[in-house]
Amino acid sequence: MWTTTTTTRFIWPIGNSTVLIPRTPAIATAYHALLAANHVRLAVWSPGSEKPTPETTHAALERSGHAWLDGTRLPLAIGVSADNGHRLVGAMNLAIDSAAGSAEAGFWIDAAAEGQGLVTRALNAVLGHAFDDLGLHRVEIRTLTANDRSRRLAERLGFTLEGVLRGAVKFPDGHRDVVVYAVLADEFAKLALP
């Protein structure tokens, strides 16, 4: 039986026993367990996602670790305190375009962890890092128009709805529309978020 708990030493505490952990091969076993448990749920929102194997999970974590090192991505897992480490409950990603001074944030959470404010806390921390430490000007969130939870999160964190990309994502049953939200550094700085 796979476990979603890891004892990795590199963590970023973001409050209320929640941490962000670099998504690298160091957490492959726990991250694979989390992905496998959520695959069917995530496939609704992610076209072309195949059932993960330990090998494909490890390879994906190697790629994200390299992207982290070359500065094009901030790949993180969301964890909560658990016996002997942290239980992984989701993922946060920031795809960075340094030349444009912008990034796109992506995230997902385990069904059992929904509604606990974990993604809000994680995204708020990542946005602070993006605007303060990385000096980015703009961060986007793109999601399917039907993804009400992600849309409400973007609006709650001060993102502006900029438009709809019609038929932008191809699923096996046809194309779906995507909404684009964005927040600029000066807008985020004005928000008084915990």
User: What is the strand content?
Assistant: 35-45%
SS content category: alpha+beta
CA-based gyration radius: 16 Å
Low-confidence stretches are none
Got a strand count? 9
- What does the oligomeric state look like here? single chain
Biggest sheet details: 9 strands, mixed
SS field, number of helical segments: 5
- Indicate the mean pLDDT: 92
Note the gap between the termini: 37 Å
Task: Give, in order, the helices and strands.
Answer: EEEHHEEEHEHEEH
Shape descriptor reads globular
Estimate percent helicity. 25-40%
Task: Describe it.
The protein is an alpha+beta fold. 32% of the residues lie in helices and 37% in strands. Strands 1, 2, 3, 4, 5, 6, 7, 8 and 9 form a 9-stranded mixed sheet that branches. Helix 1 (28-43) packs across helix 2 (54-69). The longest helix is centred in the first third of the chain and has 16 residues, at 28-43. The mean pLDDT is 92.
Topology:
Elements (H helix, E strand, L loop, with lengths): L4 E2 L5 E4 L2 E5 L5 H16 L10 H16 L3 E10 L2 E13 L4 E8 L8 H16 L4 E7 L3 H9 L3 E12 L2 E11 H6 L4
Parallel strand pairs: 6-7
Antiparallel strand pairs: 1-5, 2-3, 3-4, 4-5, 5-6, 7-9, 8-9
Helix pairs in contact: 1-2
Keywords:
single chain; 5 helices; 9-stranded mixed sheet; alpha+beta; 194 residues; 9 strands
Summarize this structure briefly:
This protein has helices at residues 28-43, 54-69, 118-133, 148-156, 185-190; strands spanning 5-6, 12-15, 18-22, 73-82, 85-97, 102-109, 138-144, 160-171, 174-184. With 194 residues, the protein is an alpha+beta fold. The longest helix has 16 residues, at 28-43.
